[in-house]
Amino acid sequence: MDEPAPTPYAAPGEGDVVVYRGATLIDGTGASARRASIVVDGAKIVAVDADPEVPAGAVEVDLAGRFVIPGLIDSHQHIATPPNRPVAEAALRRQVFGGVTAIRDMADDLRQIADLARATLVGEIPGPDIVYAALMAGPSFFDDPRTWQVSQGETPGRVPWMQAIDEETDLPLAVARAQGTHAKAIKVYANLPASTVEDIVDEAHRQGMMVWAHATVFPARPGEVVAAGVDSVSHVSLLAYETAEGLLNYKDKPAFDAANLIANGDPRLDALYADMRERGTILDATAGMWIWMANQAGQSAEVDQAARNRALTNVELSAKLTAAAYRAGVEISTGTDYETDPENPFPSLHEELVFLHEQCGIPAEQVIRSATLVGARSMGAADRMGSVEAGKLANFVVLARDPLADLRHLDSIEFVVKRGHRYERSDYTQPAASGVQTQGHGVQA
Ligand SMILES: [Zn+2]
Fold first, then answer.
1. d(CA 416, CA 98)
2. Of 5, 7, 226, 229, which has the highest C-beta tally within 10 A?
3. Which CA distances in Å does 380 have to 30, 121, 180, 213?
4. pLDDT surpasses 70 at 368
5. Residue 157's domain is classified under what CATH number?
6. What's the CA gap between 176 and 160, in Å, rounded?
């Protein structure tokens, strides 16, 4: 038998007990911060208690004066469009050393994602757990260059991870093909009518898969996408199309009155938020992404002022709609849809958390709940992640400074625990700048 690859980041074995003692715990459930100790056995938390019994032979780590939050979850990442393994590995390493212990990968070249997900799971490379989606869209979407980037060597629209769907499609077979990639969800992207979105949702749920949809699918409207029963909708700015007429397809988006929505909101959006709250549809807001988009538009050799202005309007629109959805009781997960520049020591998710607090008025403890427990629900993993509780995976972040006082204190990470394995922040090294670029954004202005 050949030897398997080394796994320096693997979870410790059962019976390997560590007691993290005396931190201020923000457990992710929205409960008040409290003093607690966390007992970890192998990959799992076995007790969270003010003064737990310490088994013989346990290692003790004194966390007096420190703050503990659950591992963060980015509900919107693309790490293989186009596939570039060194770039993806650098992003994953920075995410886990930056406190991100799980991500939703929202459609990519799944030939590469599947191996990256396996490698972070068994500990060959440092990175978050990766839960990923296979994409479905109408045939007319497949002239988008990103669909070619993720299907190299094959025919776009005819691969199991990215399928063109129309009325003729054998949906039970299409969903089964998607499931064969080990995807946990179908991502419903674009250019599908409401009746097809409904059919996809019914079949995916029947086969035990989740459905993560763009908030507008064109021509399917936000209200129709939510009513179809999807589990989450992405990109808060797309909710605005509930107020637009003449939705045709993803490329020819109709106009809506953004200035009015920013100033006054709209009763049609209020009805949509109420329906989302009722159904438990999670909003993957990606609210802060538009700042990054505006910067990108401003950096090119010839500044694309029209794109920059659209992005800046979307910054304001996203802030207002996210704030209104929060006040209406919609569950919000924290997705980014971009990564920060390589020289930035921290992943993009920190910026989204700060945006949700400072621009959308969401209290810090609720932002942390969004970034942990709601994120875990968004990927169907709340039974094992998203809060620091006995029985769940040992995924948490140890901070020197209080994140409730200022979410920017996420930059005071001392170490991260994922599946019981410790990632010391002092071991984090920046990748060599050459050849490593930022990646992302699955939505276009
Ligand atoms: Zn995306």
1. 8
2. 226
3. 19, 17, 18, 15
4. yes
5. 3.20.20.140
6. 9
State residue 339's pLDDT score: 95
Tokens of 70: 């659950």
How far apart are the CA of 30 and the centre of ligand 1, in A? 27
Cα-to-centroid distance, 401 and ligand 1 (Å) = 32
Residue 437 lies in a domain: no
Q: Which residue has the tokens 């992207």?
A: 189
Establish if 43 belongs to a structural domain.
yes
Q: Render pLDDT for 330-367 as a digit per residue (tens, 0 to 9).
A: 999 999 999 999 999 999 999 999 999 999 999 999 99
What is the token pair recorded at 105? 């990968």
What CATH code is carried by the domain that includes residue 24?
2.30.40.10
The range of the structural domain enclosing residue 24 comes to 17-69+387-426
- 65-108: pLDDT as tens digits: 999 999 999 999 999 999 999 999 999 999 999 999 999 999 99
- Please, what sign has the CA dihedral across residues 105, 272, 238, 407? negative
What is the Å distance from ligand 1's center to 426 Cα?
Answer: 31
> Phi and psi at residue 60, in whole multiples of 5°?
-110, 135
CA of 286 to the centre of ligand 1 (A): 9
In this structure, the answer to whether residues 30 and 113 fall within a common structural domain is no
- Report CA(154)–ligand 1 centroid distance (Å): 22
DSSP state of 380: T
Reported confidence tier of residue 277, pLDDT bands at 50, 70, 90: very high
Give 295-322 pLDDT, tens digit per residue. Answer: 988 776 677 888 899 999 999 999 999 9
- Angle between helical axes of 85-97 and 110-122 (0-180°, round to 10): 40
Q: What pLDDT score was predicted for residue 433? A: 54
Cα 134 to ligand 1 centre (Å)? 12
- State the DSSP string of 222-261: HHHHHHTT-SEEE-GGGGGGGG-S----SSSPPP--HHHH
Q: Residue range 417-422: average pLDDT?
A: 98
